[in-house]
Specification:
heterotrimer; A mainly alpha (245); B mainly alpha (53); C mainly alpha (245); A: mainly alpha; 0% strand; globular; C: 245 residues; mainly alpha; 10 helices
Chain lengths: 245, 53, 245
């Protein structure tokens, strides 16, 4: 059947070994890209004509914000796959991704408010992006809270997968309602991203950071995934070969 | 060099931002490795218990 | 076991032969009737969320100011925050008894679509908690200095908003069925998802207080309710099955 390759691909020992093999292939490029992005963003890129050097916070803020959304989506898709095809490995991916996503959401909030102080004159502004990000952080907390509330790992996997799917359907609704809410109250909106003309010397480091953060996430995910797969495999023969050296 | 560290006067916000993000990355690496090490230890213990039976 | 706790017995009692196949609608109607009848035997459960709602709205004049002209400005926020909190409080009664005495398990095993049964249960829950809250909101509004021309708008928006709150709450309550002392977790799961209801509802209320047309946010509230009606029972049914396994 056409499905056999799929199942072999998703078999825990195969995933465990492949994850171990692939990790350095993500980790080293991630490190290189992030170092290059840091040099480019902090040193080579010119100061912004409006924001001066404060705009450089973007080089860590924007990629963190990107990861916060990407990881939530991956978590929900993996959870959905796990629910539909009853695939343990997919649930392991979701479990591995959640803390990474939550930590980058927190980083986005902290860097956003550090950026807000020089730009808005206050650490916290009820700006639609920051507010949505805060709500996303609560969604992550709820997800991880639900996961840890169950003792049975399988039940935790499946219940939190339902929550992630419900959450990911709601994320756009929450975001647009927050944008709508903000437009009514006319907060001072500082648009820092998506400037129409960003010179290449500013743009290239940003792209390097985006790619570097994404690869970094992949590398950390693979390490965590191995741990989560081991936790889900009781008394399997392959675990003996892998661990009992 | 001082001009670089000063960040046009924005140093109190620029450097903490980078520090926080890099700290989050470092913690992620640390937590991931700890999770894997713990999972391996538990698996090993479980296997040893099986052998004793 | 209390009479009428098992679906089959309920059906038999309602004049259906044991092996006849009543339509999904009549089963849903029976469920609704059963839930309403059981609830009225424990009237205190119905009164508590309402008393809580009244109590929370009383806190604000005491904490901020007794001046009605100033309270009027924050009335929409007070009403909606109180409505959200008391609907959370009421969620505890949604599945708890039925899960404890095994009724929920019987539903899941009855071979009938669990989504339909849970929709009926959620409808009963809304009739018992959401609707009374909506009827009480105009009273609380008057106490906060809201002019009487705003009361129809408040009634309409809280009525529509509580429908979505009950549906979201059903998902949250179903997810935490197997969790002991789930109160804080339940609010962490449900509140972020309820933000759009809060935003649109509070805005409709505010417009109504100002005497402006509030059709737009009301339509959005209705859209959320319809959207919730189509998807929430599916998620709740999946969650109930996971927790019963």
């Amino acid at each position: 059947m056409a499905w056999t390759w799929f199942h072999r691909l998703a078999s825990p020992p195969h995933i465990y070994r492949t994850a171990a093999r692939l990790t350095p292939w993500f980790a080293w490029p991630a490190a290189l890209l992030i170092v290059a992005g840091l040099i480019g963003g902090l040193w080579l890129a010119p100061p912004d004509y409006q924001q001066g050097d404060a705009y450089r916070i973007m080089y860590v803020h924007a990629p963190s914000a990107w990861l916060s959304l990407l990881v939530y989506t991956i978590m929900a898709v993996a959870g959905g796959i796990g629910l539909i095809w009853r695939m343990k490995v997919a649930h392991a991916v979701a479990a591995a991704a959640a803390p990474i996503g939550a930590s980058f959401t927190l980083a986005t909030l902290v860097t956003g408010s550090l950026w807000g102080k020089p730009m808005w004159g206050t650490y916290w502004q009820w700006d639609p992006r920051l507010t949505s990000e805060l709500l996303l952080f609560f969604l992550y907390l709820g997800y991880m809270g639900l996961r840890s509330a169950f003792e049975d790992l399988q039940r935790a996997d499946r219940a939190s997968a339902v929550l992630a799917v419900v959450g990911v359907i709601n994320v756009p609704i929450i975001h647009y309602s927050v944008v709508w809410w903000n437009s009514l109250h006319q907060g001072p909106s500082v648009m820092y991203l998506g400037k129409p003309t960003m010179p290449p010397s500013m743009l290239v480091p940003l792209l390097l950071m985006f790619l570097g953060f994404t690869l970094f996430f992949a590398a950390v995910l693979l390490v965590r995934l191995r741990g989560e797969v081991l936790l889900r495999e009781r008394s399997a023969h392959w675990v003996l070969e892998e661990v009992g050296a | 060099m001082m001009r670089f560290l000063d960040m046009g006067g924005y140093y109190p916000w620029v450097w903490p931002s980078f520090a926080v993000t890099l700290a989050v990355m470092g913690l992620n690496v640390y937590w991931a490795r700890r999770l894997l090490a713990q999972a391996r230890r538990t698996a090993l213990r479980r296997l040893q218990m099986q052998e004793e039976k | 076991m209390a009479e009428g706790t098992i679906l089959e017995a309920g059906l038999a009692g309602a004049g259906f032969a044991r092996d006849s196949h009543p339509s999904a609608w009549s089963v849903a109607r029976l469920m609704l009737e059963r839930d309403l009848r059981l609830a009225f035997r424990k009237a205190s459960q119905l009164v508590q969320p309402l008393a809580f709602f009244a109590m929370v709205t009383t806190l604000f004049p005491l904490a901020i100011t007794p001046e009605l002209s100033r309270l009027r400005h924050i009335a929409s926020g007070v009403l909606w925050a109180a409505a959200l909190l008391s609907s959370l409080l009421a969620l505890e009664f949604l599945f708890r008894d039925d899960a404890q005495d095994g009724t929920l398990e019987q539903y899941a095993l009855s071979g009938r679509a669990l989504t339909g049964l849970l929709s009926a249960k959620t409808a009963a829950h809304w009739l018992l908690t959401g609707l009374p809250l909506a009827l009480m909101a105009p009273l609380a509004a008057v106490a906060l200095g809201v002019p009487s021309h705003a009361l129809p708008g408040i009634l309409a928006s809280v009525t529509l908003g509580t429908v979505t709150l009950s549906l979201l709450g059903a998902v949250g309550a179903a997810l935490t069925l197997g969790v002991r002392r789930a109160g804080a977790l339940l609010s962490l799961l449900t509140l972020p998802l309820a933000i759009p209801v809060l935003i649109f509802g509070a805005h409709a209320t505010q417009l109504a207080i100002r005497g402006e047309p509030y059709g737009a946010p009301l339509t959005l509230l209705a859209a959320l309710a319809v959207f919730g009606m189509t998807l929430a029972p599916l998620a709740a049914a999946a969650a109930v099955r996971i927790n019963l396994e």
